[in-house]
Design a protein that fits this description.
Blueprint lengths: L1 E8 L12 H7 L1 E3 L9 H16 L2 E9 L8 H18 L4 E6 L11 H13 L4 E6 L7 H6 L2 E4 L8 H16 L5 E7 L13 H12 L4 E7 L13 E7 L2 H17 L1 H4 L6 H9 L5 E5 L14 H9 L4 E7 L1 H10 L4 E6 L11 E17 L5 E12 L2 E6 L9 H4 L10 E4 L5 H5 L5 E5 L32
Parallel strand pairs: 1-3, 1-4, 4-5, 5-6, 10-16, 10-17, 11-15, 11-16
Antiparallel strand pairs: 2-3, 7-9, 8-9, 12-13, 13-14, 14-15
Helix pairs in contact: 2-6, 3-4, 7-8
The chain binds zinc ion.
Zinc ion (ZN) binds next to loops.
Length: 485
């Protein structure tokens, strides 16, 4: 068999102010061919895995383009089309291929297209023909559309949030596509629309048990895959929302019946699944009353959902209270990072940090800071053994709070976002992280308690109040109490 793989990813927050252009992808990572196999991002780790599986099984593997940009506003149309056409050109010039594996996000919106993944797969299908097998791996924060499911042979989503299972799902997708290419499997897909918009960490109930249920159903004979598309609430498209996808082996009626049964199971838990986070003040009260290290998540200013990452509200509240033995990261402020780096370690300077990118950033904060460390190319552990760039980063100390200021916009995934700069988290009472959920994998082992705070910012959890214009069906929970009635 000849197997081709490519990746193209952006989770688009259509409410975010700035688009993702070529620079956003260059900063995130653009690698081609063999160079993609040497990268450290989740897309590169996936390409490496597919390459190893092909080598093990005696198949020819061709890596194409792998491009990723930090979540942001819509992708510039010409940039999206340039990447798409590059993948198509590779397929034409290096093909024919029996199998095409695509590592996509599923929530990419460009300035001219609401469903880039379906557009890409449609174009790929036109090049490779009906005989080739197209498999797609998606992030669960996707807009899982019927055209995409219909055009691909198999679509598999990561089940965990944090998405630490992307390599397991890549193995499954490889196996499913190989089975179809050999004529041993007939993947048949069905979608069920749960009529919900939500946020579903799988580290807590009731979502943890629902994921177990998905896996149980996958264990039944004739069921090839069960996926739950959480949806991406901050991407306003006709298809925004939560859906269940079931793939059976050649049994469309069973796929449809199982997708509906599983979807109604998620729906039945909708009230318990709705996030209800404490205010900043209540979160700090709870944190300071708890012995040990408490992690407070700045959920709404998560760069991983397209937020700027420069909101200062939580830091201001901590400083106003005189919270000591605390750390906060990472405030995205390249200007402040440059000023601190130039001042040098040990310098004490007046700084205006954060609050720059837009209304969701709140006000900038005027502080006096001591520069404790500078790293020209800081990075942190990401999900599944990957690494995430943080760029020029500084550790500054502000009235007893150790603050990380960085220059490449990213959420905080793991403690080494702090410790990598020399910040000692042992003995800290409170560590505040700009992230909604991906921090959980890295911080749960060291946290006595984790508190997700309802902070101001671009990733608001008030789903009923999101100002959708394009979303076709506004009869969804929690905007409507019982939309499936
Ligand atoms: Zn996601």
């Amino acid at each position: 068999m000849r197997v081709f793989a490519a990746g193209l990813q952006n989770e688009t927050n259509t409410f975010a102010p700035w688009p993702a252009g070529a620079r956003a992808f260059e900063e995130g990572g653009v690698r081609r061919g063999a160079a993609a196999l040497a990268g450290q991002g989740p897309d590169h780790k996936t390409a490496q895995l597919w390459s190893e599986l092909c080598r093990r099984d005696g198949h020819d593997f061709t890596p194409g383009l792998f491009a990723w940009a930090q979540p942001s506003g819509p992708v510039v149309q010409s940039v999206y089309e340039g990447f798409r056409d590059e993948i198509l050109a590779d397929l034409r010039s290096q093909g024919p291929f029996d199998i095409v594996l695509l590592f996509l996000h599923g929530a990419m919106v460009s300035t001219g297209c609401d469903d880039c993944e379906a557009d890409l797969v449609r174009h790929v299908r036109a090049v490779v023909g009906d005989q080739a097998v197209i498999g797609v791996e998606l992030d669960p924060h996707c807009h899982l559309t019927q055209p995409l499911v219909d055009t691909a042979d198999a679509v598999i989503l990561m089940k965990h949030y944090p998405h630490d299972d992307y390599l397991e799902r890549a193995v499954e997708l490889y196996g499913l596509c190989l089975g179809k290419a050999r004529g041993e499997l007939r993947p048949t897909s069905a979608l069920f629309d749960c009529r919900m918009v939500g946020f579903y960490p799988t580290t807590q109930e009731p979502m943890a048990s629902l994921v177990e249920r998905f896996c149980e159903v996958e264990g039944e004979a004739g069921v090839l895959s069960v996926s739950f598309a959480h949806g991406f609430p901050w991407g306003d498209t006709p298809d925004t929302g939560s859906r269940v996808l079931v793939i059976t082996d050649g049994d469309p009626a069973r796929a449809a019946q199982l997708a509906e049964a599983i979807g109604r199971g998620v729906y039945a838990a909708r009230d318990a699944l709705l996030p209800r986070f404490p205010s900043i003040e209540a979160a700090l009260d709870e944190a300071l009353a708890t012995p040990g290290l408490v992690v407070v998540a700045d959920t709404a200013d998560n760069a991983g959902g397209g937020a700027p990452g420069d909101n200062t509200a939580l830091l201001k509240a901590m400083l106003d209270r005189g919270v000591a033995a605390a750390a906060l990261g990472a405030i995205w402020d390249p200007i402040a990072a440059i000023a601190c780096a130039d001042a040098g370690v040990g310098a004490r300077l007046k700084l205006r940090i954060g609050g720059k990118a837009g209304l969701s950033s709140a006000q900038p904060l005027d502080i006096e800071a001591t520069v404790r460390a500078v790293s020209e190319r800081h990075d942190q552990a990401g999900l599944g053994n990957s690494r995430t760039k943080m760029g020029l980063s500084v550790w500054i100390e502000v009235d007893g709070v150790d603050v990380v200021v960085n220059s490449i916009r990213t959420q905080v995934f793991s403690p080494d976002a702090f410790t990598g700069l020399g910040i000692d988290l042992e003995g800290k009472r409170l560590v505040a992280v700009k992230s909604s959920q991906h921090f959980h994998a890295g911080f749960a082992p060291i946290a006595a308690k984790i508190i997700r705070a309802a902070t101001p910012g671009a990733i608001q959890m008030d789903f009923a109040g999101l100002p959708y214009v394009k979303k076709a069906d506004l009869s969804f929970y929690p905007r409507v109490d019982d939309p499936l009635a």
